[in-house]
């Protein structure tokens, strides 16, 4: 057994305990009520980096939540790996659907995780995966096997669109200079089917408001004679897709790069069963754009989803009211070469134009992100692939993911460096959902694999 | 000047004082903290009926608040008028929006009420209007002009849905036997534009739930490949109306009685301006079923309004989630001869049938109410019309109201008697709102008009 594995084995319980400690901090960046907790999470990450052996650890202020920086430069001539992750988490609601307090981590066995999984908000996204890199640094430091320089950039606003990361990166290009960026904020196909994410969808996220009468009205006295903002909102949203679930916003598909038959055939090799998919989600049928498979719909095609809707009376019983206002949050996942700002503008112009004269419509952009595709023939990918082979005993499959990590495109643009998306989560880990969890196996497999990446990256040529 | 007018003039101050006394009792039926006051109001009404000259006055117990009964039978061969009203009132909150204590009546002049209006909770709805009938009885008794037998049925639960009125009526059909029911619990167009409400809309109210995946999902990883319950709900609701705002539920209009050109022409005489309507509601355009005017859309046509909708993330900021469930509360206003139970079933069958296989749809009925229309060619209406002509100097306009008063249909069903809605309130009286008031002019005009109704009803043939 290698020194690294021995060290991991000896410190297993502590590595778990330290992660649980971090998970106890409700660092919800979307809700200002948790400001103190988000700051506390930043401090905790800084401390853990120091004790892992990082130098120059700073909590770098930004116009929003701070970015935690730390580095270990062993030899300027050696290649440098920049690790990115985030310490903020999604809101936990609906709280009542959790089996345990989302901020009091519990380890439980599941069918997919016979060795147990850590149940807590952020367990997988992204505290658990980010913390693997901190522990991997400790392992390499303690076993004198650190083979590259390493820098850490851990932010606290990923779940709200990394609104200040660009601001920080632009101002710290030299400090962040590196040869490759390593990110664990995605997933793999299964614990026995390792994979590396080579593509990500972009994002355009807007909030819409439809206003009718200047006050709530009695639906008996006014019903039928005034535009009901909720009825109108449902009609406007419904009109955004046709019967083939094709998005009807003019120009929406203009920049979409059609994937070649060959690439689609390659993708189709990844194991997938609509039956399993339906069973796991307890749905009677899949649903999506005509002419594409489920994995394609969730990765290489753009989407439009209502993430939230509200208006009128939502309480017990019946209230015969016509609301003055109705609201929705709508997000669109984008694929190369769609541009979020362009899509947001197309949406805003179109949506504001389809409202009838009897209401006023407002569209407020939230945040966006560029789609991204990384080649599989560069040094970073090859080093990652070799690392998985060492620890999983098989070559990882390159996969295009439906999610968005807008920063990946930002890094390439600002720092000129490719990112490797070394994610160890599973689809079933319920990130952004109640009972989010992260496999104990996955946590330690990550801590084990990351040092192998450093080793191979140091050995390989560009 | 008639004896009646002379008597009213001589007792004007006392008539006002007695109403104010009744208004000082906070008989809020919705709030059990006021139980003693509601009972006290019942007692006060009983006392006032006795002193007006009624016999057999009883405070009749029900499973809820009592019903005050009283009668004056002068000759079994004469027709009998049954007066309905209620002594309970709406809660007064938000209290801080009142200019005076809602239960310490104040008389103030307003633009619409130059002779002054009584400001107090219940001034118009319904103590003020109900008490006109008590005083009218006194007037007729004191001037020996009572020309019909009269019965009073004054309840204390109208503001909480008349939950025990049906119970009482079923058990007292003989006692309540009458030729016409007289109710003053509605309004008229203006003090110089008398009107009589001849129709009320019925109601079908349902709650719908659309369920997709068994948990909230990450909209990046699943977006585009699973049915989003909110998107689906908006499509289902939108499909319930066509481009002419015509409701598409099969069979929905089957029982709707088309109004004759003549009656529509009659209705069109009621003063209405879309411009004023738009200005008051701060809307750029009216909106509704093609081929009908604004007053028609709000009265003689059925509607479908979403009263509330909710699902997914409604908090601050952006959450990229696909919700597991989406909900809406939907109400339909009904017109003769639509039946609420039938419409509710049509809605449920249709709505549950249009959901795609990828979701499950549930429809839960809330409560319903029958529509009602009283012909303008029957004895009761003709007597009322003649009475208004005597006291206002002009024929009243028959008006169909968009609201619902389910008890009117109950009376027709259980007692087989038509109700005449002789309301003297104004739209601007702010019933159910802060600063509710009732014009002194309207109060005495009612006391003056009611005896004329008795006179004409006695003289007319069926």
Features:
homodimer, Alpha-Beta Plaits, Aminopeptidase, 2 domains, 462 residues, 4-stranded antiparallel sheet
Give your account of this protein's structure:
By secondary structure, chain A is α+β, with helices and mostly antiparallel strands. Chain A has 2 domains: 287 residues, Aminopeptidase, CATH 3.40.630.10; 123 residues, Alpha-Beta Plaits, CATH 3.30.70.360. Chain A contains 14 helices and 18 strands. Chain A has a 6-stranded mixed beta sheet with strand order 1-2-6-3-7-17, with helices on both faces. In chain A, strands 11-13-9-14 form a 4-stranded antiparallel beta sheet. In chain A, strands 4-5-18 form a 3-stranded antiparallel beta sheet. In chain A, helix 2 runs antiparallel to helix 4 and helix 5 runs parallel beside helix 13. Chain A is globular, with a radius of gyration of 23 Å. Strand 11 of chain A pairs antiparallel with strand 11 of chain B. Chains A, B: This is Acetylornithine deacetylase/succinyldiaminopimelate desuccinylase-like deacylase. Chains A, B: Keywords: Hydrolase, Metal-binding, Protease. Chains A, B: Pfam families: M20_dimer, Peptidase_M20.
